[in-house]
Write a structure and sequence with these properties.
Largest sheet of chain B: 10 strands, mixed
Number of strands of chain A: 10
Structural class of chain A: alpha/beta
Shape of chain B: elongated
Radius of gyration of chain B: 29 Å
Number of domains of chain B: 2
CATH class of chain A: Alpha Beta
Number of helices of chain B: 14
Oligomer: heterodimer
Order of helices and strands of chain A: EEEHEEHEHHHEHEHEE
Largest interface: A-B, 27 and 24 residues
Bound molecules: adenosine-5'-triphosphate, magnesium ion
Strand content of chain B: 15-25%
Shape of chain A: globular
CATH architecture of chain A: 3-Layer(aba) Sandwich
CATH topology of chain A: Rossmann fold
Low-confidence stretches of chain B: none
Helix content of chain B: 40-55%
Helix content of chain A: 25-40%
Order of helices and strands of chain B: HHEEHEEHEHEHEEEHEEHEHHHHHH
Radius of gyration of chain A: 18 Å
Chain lengths: 240, 380
């Protein structure tokens, strides 16, 4: 269940209450998020839409613990992240969040395998266990045969799939995707969206997605619009 | 270390930049190695100076002689245990560039005074038995491909004529820093063949004293006993004597320090600049590492580690080249007989390179540490 009215039960996976974010630009104050509420359950696939500059990236960064809000609280799986120290937040991110960015953001001097392995180096897994996880993740995104390629040897769609493998390899609590198909052609974009849909349906992942693309948003179970600093429900697809 | 490839893969990122930075370190450390060698060469005398030996020269100047009669008078001075003397010959072997020191020595006392120069007993005996015999250091033997029994002509400069010697003994140093480029022959031969002016004169005396702690007092006693004579003396410990040589070479120490200082300061700027560019080029990647869960300190360590790696590789290469260079021997053909890069200088060079790497890398590393993910990812 996804709610934006702040009346979700106590057991939602993600629980946002009264979230405020202001930016200072010179003497001007930009009030991007204004008392935003959100409840997301495990296994939900949520798409955020909204005009450029409406605060979608800002919201995602806050949910992912990359930035701190001006006011309000975010609770993920029972942990309130809005009061964590920077060090704790970093460790929390490693454990709970998988980021997927528009620009793929792979490290060019590392192979696909090594890029995907990055989050696992922070865990106590042995080398053999890491290898196994990385291979599984690359299989899920359909790139098992490109394991030892460098990013420049891959197409945009393939790079993004490596990015997705990196995001899921440590089995995070949820995936945060900021316009993951923004740089891709229609076909590659559809493939990526198929992949995300499969991650939700077959692997029980929770996905929060920012997109400008209505076709991509179709895949989500819920589409939310960010408007004047709060979320509005645009469409709701009952689980069929 | 499972993070190793994160560090090493960066070296291959900008190959030209990596090569240039590593090259800068290599050149600087090569230079450092050579400066250390030159400094060592100048200070070599200090290192091997015997604490219980005094050198007595003419008060007017080093090149003025002293009478042979002082030998017995020195022995009578309390605290003096042994006396020997030598003359500077200053001959030329084949070509003036083939410089090496030649001493006319007192065969009865010289060897006992300088036990650090070791050779087989029978060779020494053969030398003593041959009026035209010579003892040569092993470095000379290597340089001129001599062997026992060779006849070596020296063209006299102070003492005119061509002098021929038979190599009867080859000595080696018992310590690394001992000078093995000397050529000794009989003082008696010099006595016999020299012109009138030099009759009964020696270049300098060396005496052994009973206790190094009394060196100052005994030196004073020696100089006082010859005061107001036509041949006044100046007595110093071997160490002080060697130090005065170093001083004569000009303020070489300061010169070396200033050259080294400038080079390392430049290297610092190069490293700082390289790492600053490396961080700026990689802002997104560093941000991604942080987003994925790497701590600020890890990122700091990564950048610093990269600077240290560059320093280590380049510095190691440079000092290795310097070492190889010194193995080829003295390139000045005799001016720097002690041409050697000691391990302590190698270690000091590596430490210095790492320090430069750390200092040059610290500011870029801190800026990488402070980098905020959201700002970095927003930058396109
Ligand atoms: N660090 C910052 N300092 C000042 N203003 C900022 C900062 N970050 C974001 N903003 C402003 O906040 C607003 C929301 O930005 P945000 O990037 O969240 O929008 P968005 O919905 O993701 O837009 P887009 O669809 O173009 O990606 C914008 O007006 C932006 O200029
Ligand atoms: Mg955005």
């Amino acid at each position: 269940m996804v709610r934006v009215d702040g009346r979700g039960g106590g057991n939602s996976l993600v629980r946002v209450r009264g979230l405020d974010k202001k930016y200072q630009r010179g003497s001007e104050e930009i009030h991007v998020l204004q008392g935003l509420n959100l409840d997301v359950d495990a296994g939900d696939f949520v798409a955020f839409m909204g005009p450029s500059g409406s605060g979608k990236t800002t919201l995602l960064n806050l949910l992912g613990g990359l930035d701190l809000p001006s006011a309000g609280s975010i609770t993920v799986a029972g942990d309130e992240i809005t009061h964590m120290s920077a060090g704790k937040l970093t460790a929390w991110r490693a454990r709970h969040v998988g980021f997927i960015f528009q620009m793929y953001n792979l490290i060019p001097v590392l192979t696909a395998f090594q890029n995907v392995e990055l989050p696992l180096l922070l865990t106590k897994l042995s080398k053999a266990e890491r290898s196994q996880h990385v291979e599984t993740a690359l299989q899920v995104v359909g790139l098992a045969d490109r394991m030892h390629h460098f990013p420049r040897q891959l197409s945009g769609g393939q790079e993004q799939r490596v990015g997705i493998a990196r995001a899921i390899v440590a089995d995070p609590t949820f995936l945060l995707c900021d316009e993951p198909t923004g740089d891709l052609d229609r076909k590659s974009a559809d493939e990526i969206m198929d992949l995300l849909g499969r991650l939700v349906r077959e692997h029980g992942k929770t996905v929060l997605l920012v997109t400008h693309d209505p076709v991509a948003a179709e895949r989500a179970s819920v589409v939310l619009h960010l408007n004047k600093g709060v979320l509005e429900e645009a469409r709701k697809v009952e689980a069929s | 270390m499972k993070y190793r490839h994160l560090l090493f893969s960066n070296l291959s990122r900008k190959k030209i930049r990596t090569t240039l930075t590593v090259g800068s370190f290599a050149v600087a450390l090569f230079l450092f190695g050579l400066l250390a060698v030159v400094r060592g060469a100048f200070n070599q005398g200090l290192e091997v100076a015997g604490a219980d030996r005094l050198v007595i020269v003419n008060k007017v100047s080093l090149i003025q002689p002293l009478p042979i009669a002082y030998n017995d008078r020195l022995l009578r001075i309390p605290g003096v245990k042994q006396v020997t003397h030598a003359n500077w010959f200053g001959g030329v072997y084949q070509d003036e560039r083939n410089f090496f020191p030649q001493f006319a020595i007192d065969t009865e006392t010289y060897r006992e005074m300088f036990p650090e120069f070791a050779m087989p007993e029978e060779q020494w005996k053969a030398f003593v038995a041959d009026r035209e015999g010579a003892v040569v250091g092993e470095d000379l033997v290597k340089r001129f491909h001599w062997k026992i029994g060779d006849r070596v002509p020296l063209k006299g400069t102070i003492f005119p004529g061509t002098w021929e010697f038979n190599i009867r003994a080859i000595y080696h140093g018992t310590r690394q820093a001992d000078d093995t480029t000397q050529f000794w022959f009989h003082y008696k031969l010099l006595e016999e063949r020299q012109n009138q002016y030099w009759k009964g004169l020696v270049g300098w005396y060396t005496v052994r004293i009973d206790d190094p702690d009394h060196a100052v007092r005994i030196a004073k006693a020696i100089d006082e006993s010859f005061a107001n004579s036509p041949w006044e003396t100046k007595t110093d410990t071997e160490k002080a004597f060697a130090a005065s040589f170093v001083k004569q070479a000009g303020n070489i120490q300061l010169l070396l320090l200033s050259i080294g200082g400038v080079v390392f300061f430049t290297l610092l700027l190069v490293t700082g600049n390289t790492m600053a560019i490396a961080v700026r080029d990689r802002v997104r990647e560093l941000a991604i590492l942080k987003a994925v869960g790497y701590s600020d300190n890890f990122v700091l360590g990564l950048v610093l580690g990269e600077a240290l790696l560059l320093a280590m590789v380049g510095g190691g290469l440079g000092i290795l080249l310097a070492k190889l260079f010194t193995l080829g021997g003295d390139p000045t053909r005799g001016l720097l007989p002690f041409f050697y890069l000691p391990t302590s200088a190698v270690v000091a060079g590596i430490v210095l390179a790492l320090a430069v790497g750390a200092v040059g890398g610290i500011l870029p590393a801190v800026s990488a540490m402070r980098l905020r993910v959201v700002d970095a990812l927003r930058r396109v």
